[in-house]
Hints:
The protein has 206 residues and is mostly helical. It folds into two domains: 63 residues, Homeodomain-like (Arc Repressor Mutant, subunit A), CATH 1.10.10.60; 135 residues, Tetracycline Repressor, domain 2 (Orthogonal Bundle), CATH 1.10.357. The protein contains nine helices and no strands. Helix 1 packs across helix 6 and helix 5 crosses helix 9. The longest helix is centred in the middle third of the chain and has 25 residues. The N terminus and C terminus are likely disordered.
Amino acid sequence: xxxxxxxxxxxxxxxxxxxxxxxxxxxxxxxxxxxxxxxxxxxxxxxxxxxxxxxxxxxxxxxxxxxxxxxxxxxxxxxxxxxxxxxxxxxxxxxxxxxxxxxxxxxxxxxxxxxxxxxxxxxxxxxxxxxxxxxxxxxxxxxxxxxxxxxxxxxxxxxxxxxxxxxxxxxxxxxxxxxxxxxxxxxxxxxxxxxxxxxxxxxxxx
Length: 206
């Protein structure tokens, strides 16, 4: 995540629309930084505005509420966390190698880094916020749908159920890393091969 600062309010030569876009982007960046730093419930309008280098009133100018700002920041950040592993997985012509590639892409998220903590905070907040829960569910459903379609192309049996298992497995790794170390990607190669093996699909490259 990039630190927001007072340079984000565009200079005198910028148009009003450009300044507005810069302020909005700075607020989103600031919120995404603060959630893992202080916790979801401790983020305030003044904290976000100070981090973004803008006036506190701009929070409610750009967003209906502080909660709306936090939800939008989480939606953007979690999408970024999910995109990398999903792209790494579906780029592979082999199901097991694709999943190992996704696991390697997830090595950046070791439980204590800001993105991992943000992920955990968002999950917890979603249990109490129906709007955030719907947004998070939409993101997860998109990943499951992509995974299911990719499994179907490799003729993996019961692709819908397998996609659900794999997504829960990947999500769980991120959450478990916050509590302690977990095995590296190769430790899962053989169990994944057995799960996905069908019609000649999914031999692991050694």
